[in-house]
């Protein structure tokens, strides 16, 4: 039986704050190492997932009592410069210390309507706002914040999303036209093509995006153009708040916006189709839209407005680089896989595997170093990580997540029309081994960077990170709660403190993270966990505790770089474990490196890959 740590009734557990971990890490580390079930109780209920917001999609102003901007970005001025803020609404929210959502009608000749949120300054201090706006909140003249999204947003943002799906220029123009006008005829007119051509192009684009109906197509494009939303975020409350819809009407509106037919929406709401028809007539009238496509855009923008404000926690989640450089393709079942192609296309392709505690964004210096050596870096969110959907075979993914990941690798290389790819594993070594067993014909040169042993195979676990690994090993059921607790507290300052606390016993890693670029790269790697997308992390962290591998034959061309001063794992133990797995591989020690070798020694890694042996042909 695991040793239990007693707690007095009034004793404080971590709950939703990381302060005990930051300020008294030794005590919390000891608590974690006991594997105490009391710690699980201290995690409380489900933690909040947050949106990752694209700044250019958000019009923001901090205004005085008369509505004069103290700060206003270009997106805000595009809406309000010709029609100033409503002074009556503004006066009301200032007097009441509250908030109010209003619709702005731009007329038939323009793109339609925008949604604006007026709020008194005290309510906005935890919103995701640009840094310049946050700085203005302390100005004595600041009385309210006005946030606007909608009709006049830049087409370039939608174009970026279309590019991520691989749409052609004409498909992109039709897609933007669909978002703006809500129907194929209007989209074709805006794109300067015939209705017949526009209709064919629209349906080709919908197939590419994996949306069977125009409503779902518009919803998906608009949603992604705002950034990344929390998984499972329904949004009915926003519709009842903004338009005064009943809960039933709001549910129907959401279903239609997400691409359901009226019959499907009625079934989902548990009502007859005739009842749904009458309810939707009211919804269309109240929301001032004439088509399901128009409803899709209005609903999505209203949900985004709420997520941008209430469902985020400070500027840590405001990121114009949310889609860097995002590309998407669909599995045969229609689920989504996300990848980054850093280019150039003329380079030798190298797949950079992410660790089990990160997602696809690769360290920027490593990317640049690989490109300088003639490589084309590629990275892929594995199933359940980042913007990649969980594996279609849930049982297989739970039992063998590293093997299941190879299914996507096969699809990925087929999508890019590549026969073979070099592999750099910055973590993720278990995936490289799975690939060697299941698809060796796809692998060129292979370079492992500080490969992790299984959690059960080493006995040196230092500091909070080591304590977490031990807690995972003892109680895999704690993994999801712990990671959600951590990411729920990741403001910019907090994430920096957490990172520095985690490496405080490693001078080499402290030096690495004294560089803001490296710290930003690290945050970029795990930021998508903040949206609640942790299924892949949970599966791999659970599996790595029991992972083993017999000796791998045919790996004489593999190369392994090991840091001499890895603070997390005993380097000699790591060497012994992986020497048994890769008896023919070349191992090299990096004497002046620690855990984050992939960030501190990008040029060395790129050179080592370039100098590695090619696999035998045949």
If you consult CATH, what is the topology of the largest domain?
A: Rossmann fold
Strand segment count = 15
How far apart are the termini?
53 Å
Could you tell me the radius of gyration in angstroms? 26 Å
The CATH level-2 architecture of the largest domain is identified as 3-Layer(aba) Sandwich
β-strand amount: 5-15%
Largest sheet entry: 8 strands, mixed
Helix content: 40-55%
Low-confidence parts, pLDDT < 50 over ≥5 residues? 1-16, 311-322
**At the fourth CATH level, what is the homologous superfamily of the largest domain?**
Alpha/Beta hydrolase fold, catalytic domain
Q: What form results from the Cα inertia axes?
A: globular
Content-based structural category: alpha/beta
Q: Which strand order spans the largest sheet, edge to edge or round the barrel?
A: 8-9-11-10-12-13-14-15
Mean pLDDT, to the nearest integer, reads 82
Number of helices: 29
What is the C-level CATH assignment of the largest domain?
Alpha Beta
Q: Provide the number of structural domains.
A: 5
């Amino acid at each position: 039986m695991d040793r239990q740590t007693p707690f007095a009734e009034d004793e404080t557990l971590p709950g939703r704050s990381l302060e005990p971990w930051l300020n008294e890490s030794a005590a919390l580390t000891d608590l974690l190492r006991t594997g105490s079930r009391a710690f699980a109780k201290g995690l409380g209920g489900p933690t909040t997932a947050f949106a990752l917001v694209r700044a250019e999609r958000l019009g923001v102003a901090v205004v005085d009592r008369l509505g004069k901007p103290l700060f206003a970005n270009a997106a805000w001025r595009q809406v309000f410069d010709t029609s100033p803020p409503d002074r009556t609404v503004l006066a009301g929210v200032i007097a009441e210390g509250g908030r109010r959502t209003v619709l702005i009608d731009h007329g038939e000749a323009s793109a339609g309507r925008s949604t604006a949120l007026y709020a008194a300054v005290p309510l906005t201090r935890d919103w995701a706002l640009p840094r310049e706006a946050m700085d203005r909140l302390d100005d004595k003249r600041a009385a309210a914040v006005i946030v606007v999204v909608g009709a006049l947003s830049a087409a370039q943002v939608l174009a970026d999303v279309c590019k991520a799906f691989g749409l052609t220029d004409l498909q992109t123009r039709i897609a933007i036209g669909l978002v703006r006008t809500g129907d194929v005829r209007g989209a074709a007119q805006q794109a300067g093509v015939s209705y017949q051509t526009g209709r064919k192009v629209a349906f080709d684009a919908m197939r590419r995006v994996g949306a069977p109906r125009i409503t779902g197509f518009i919803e998906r494009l608009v949603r992604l153009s705002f950034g990344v939303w929390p998984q499972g975020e329904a949004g009915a409350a926003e519709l009842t708040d903004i338009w005064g819809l009943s809960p039933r009407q709001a549910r129907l509106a959401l279903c239609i916006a997400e691409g359901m037919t009226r019959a499907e929406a009625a079934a989902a709401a548990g009502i007859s189709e005739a009842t749904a028809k009458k309810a939707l007539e009211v919804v269309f009238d109240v929301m001032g839209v004439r088509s399901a496509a128009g409803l899709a855009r209005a609903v999505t923008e209203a949900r985004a407005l709420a997520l941008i404000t209430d469902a985020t926690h400070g500027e840590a989640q405001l990121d114009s680089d949310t889609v860097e450089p995002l590309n998407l393709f669909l599995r045969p079942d229609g689920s989504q896989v996300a990848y980054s192609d850093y280019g150039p296309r003329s380079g030798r392709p190298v797949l950079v595997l992410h660790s089990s505690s990160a997602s696809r964004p690769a360290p920027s210096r490593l990317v640049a170093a690989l490109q300088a050596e003639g490589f084309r870096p590629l990275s892929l969110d594995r199933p359940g990580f980042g913007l990649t959907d969980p594996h279609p075979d849930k049982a297989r993914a739970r039992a063998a997540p590293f093997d299941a990941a190879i299914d996507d690798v096969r699809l990925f290389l087929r999508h890019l029309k590549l026969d073979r790819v070099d592999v750099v594993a910055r973590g993720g070594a278990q995936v490289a081994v799975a690939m060697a067993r299941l698809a060796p014909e796809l692998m060129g040169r292979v370079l492992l960077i500080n490969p992790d042993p299984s959690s059960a195979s080493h006995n040196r676990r230092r500091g909070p990170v080591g304590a977490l690994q031990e807690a995972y090993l003892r109680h895999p059921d704690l993994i999801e709660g712990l990671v959600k607790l951590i990411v729920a507290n990741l403001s910019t300052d907090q994430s920096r403190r957490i990172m520095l606390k985690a490496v405080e016993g490693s001078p080499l890693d402290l030096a690495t993270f004294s560089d803001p670029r490296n710290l930003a790269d690290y945050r970029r790697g795990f930021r998508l966990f903040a949206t609640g997308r942790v299924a892949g992390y949970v599966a791999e962290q659970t599996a790595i505790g029991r992972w083993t591998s017999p000796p791998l034959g045919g790996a004489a061309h593999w190369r392994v770089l090991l840091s001499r001063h890895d603070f997390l794992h005993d380097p000699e133990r790591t060497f012994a474990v992986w020497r048994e797995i890769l008896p023919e591989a070349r191992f090299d020690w990096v004497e002046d490196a620690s855990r984050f070798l992939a960030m501190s020694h990008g040029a060395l890694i790129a050179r080592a890959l370039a100098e590695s042996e090619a696999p035998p042909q045949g």
